[in-house]
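haha ok so turns out i had the wrong file open the whole time. this is the CORRECT one, sorry everyone. sequence first:
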Amino acid sequence: MTEAMEGRGADVAVWIDEADAGLVDHAAVRAAIATGAISGIGPSLDPGARRAVADEPEMAVIAGGHRRLSEAHWVAHASRAAHRFARLLTPSHASSGGAEGLVQFPLPPSATASAAGLIAVGVRVRDLTAAANVAIGLPYTTPGLLGLRGLVARGISVGIGPIFAPAEFRRAAELYRQGLELRLGAGEDITGVACVTWTPVGAIDEHANHYVPAERRELRDALGPAVAQLIYAEVFATYFAPGWKRIRDAGAQPVRSGFCALDEAGAVAGPLALPGSVLAAGAARALTLARDLTAPAEADETEAHWVLDQIHQLGMSFRAAREELRREAVRQERERWRERLRPATDELSGCPT
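then structure:
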C-alpha cells in the first residue's frame, strides 16, 4: 500500500463510500488507512445494523404500521460508528491540517427540512462523536446551503451534494467562504474546517448514455468525467479570487471536488484523479483505486467542453438532465433512509416489525 500511495501522488484522495462499521476491523482497510492509501469515509456512512434491546423502549416508532428505528436513536448509533472511524483516521487528519482523515455523517430526513434543523443535528453529532474529523453531510438544497454556512461558522467540516454543474459548485463555495468569514470575524480559528462537494459521476454517465448511439462509442461514459473536470476547474477559480484573500491568508482550505458513484457501470476513475480531488467508492473498488492509480491526471477543459457540445447535439438538455438526476438522487436518498431506519431484526422489544 505504501508504494501505491507514493506512486499515485499524495494529493489524490481515495475514500470509502457507504462504509460499514465492521470495516474498522478489516485488516486490508486498516492497513490502507494506516498508510494513507484510504484517507476518508464518505459521502455516506453505514453504521451497521443493531439489535434492539429491552432497555431502549423509545428506540422504535410506528410508521405506516411498522416499527422502525427512530432517527434520534439512529444518530446515536451511527455516531458511535463514526467515532470509531474518526479515531482510525486521526493521524491522516492531523498530518494533513484537517484536509484529510474525514468521516462524513449523513443527516436524517427530519433534519434536512430546515437550516436550523441541519445545524442543530450537526452540532449534536459533533458532540456525540467528540471528533474534529467528522464532517456533516448536507443536501444541495436551500436549507443545505444555509446549513453549510452555519456549520462552518461553528467550526464543523461539511460535505454537500449532489453537484451537477460548475455554477452549483460556486454557490457551495461561496457559502463556505461566508461561514469562514463569520468564524474569522468572531476571532475563531478557521484552519482545519473542510468542505467537499460531491458529483455522482456514474449517475451522470448512466443518464447521458441513453442519448449516445452505437456509432458514437467515444461519447459513452464521457459526460460524467467532463462535468467533473469543469467543476474541478472551479476550485482554483474560486480559491484564488480576490474575495478569498483574507481567509486564504488566515489558513482557509479550498473547497475540494469529490467524485462518487464510481461503482456504477462505466464510471472511469483515471480522468478524475486530479490533484486535490477525492474519489469515493465502495470498499473493494476503493482499495483497488488506492493500489492502481498512478500519477495525477490533468484537467482538459477544452476536451470537456467538446464532450458537452457533442452530447447536446445528440439531443440531451443539460437543464432537464440536472433536474431528473436531482430527483433521482432524492429518491435514492429516501430509499437509503428507509433501509437505515429499518430494525436490525424482525423483533423489536418483543413486537413484530
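Residues 1-10, 51-66, 344-353 have pLDDT under 50 and may be disordered.
again sry for the mixup
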